[in-house]
Amino acid sequence: MKINSVLAACSMSAVLFCPIAFAQSSVTFYGLISGGVAYSTNQSGNHTYQTVSGTNQSPRWGLKGGEELGDATSAIFTLENGFNIFNGNASFNARQFGRQAFMGLTNTTWGTLTLGRQYDSVEDLLAMNTGFNWNGTIGDNDNTYNNIHVNDSIKYTSKTIGGLQVTALYGFSNSTTGFNNNRAFSMGASYNYGPVNWNVAYTEFDSPYSASNPTGAIDTDYS
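^ that's the sequence the OP posted. Answer follows.
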């Protein structure tokens, strides 16, 4: 029996944070770099020394900001890129902003409504509790490792009231061959009060990676 083992011999990470503020608006440039050198005792029958991009967290940089519109409402946006620090290639099928790309409105009373390429409720609410502590599931079929992003989506997140917050997302199929051909639906709730931290989420993908509709809400975008 062959036993595989991987040892991270050297890793390093850095975080970039640069806020730029104006009268009633703000833009923040941020980023994270992580990488290292790994040794494997058995990779296809041989031992290897390799550089590894993202030993702790996936490298990224992004822009996010907001503009006050009055009546406790602000316009917001987030553009976030993922990349490999050793060759400079963009992740997520070479998308410019493959991690996140959305805009919307937020209000102190009714919550936040956003449109674009976004995370589903499982990633928002469950990944922090399962993805790294329990190593997720084989093949990441619950998306706690955030390998699946939702394109063409509209998302609502309520304000937190008494420790309770709810969220829902719908990813449009944009298909002429069927309303549910490669669409996505997700919803969840979070309750945090004192020592209690409770999260629940549900996500449904209809005909994901559909050959007849490759440009719908879900596509193959593993990094």
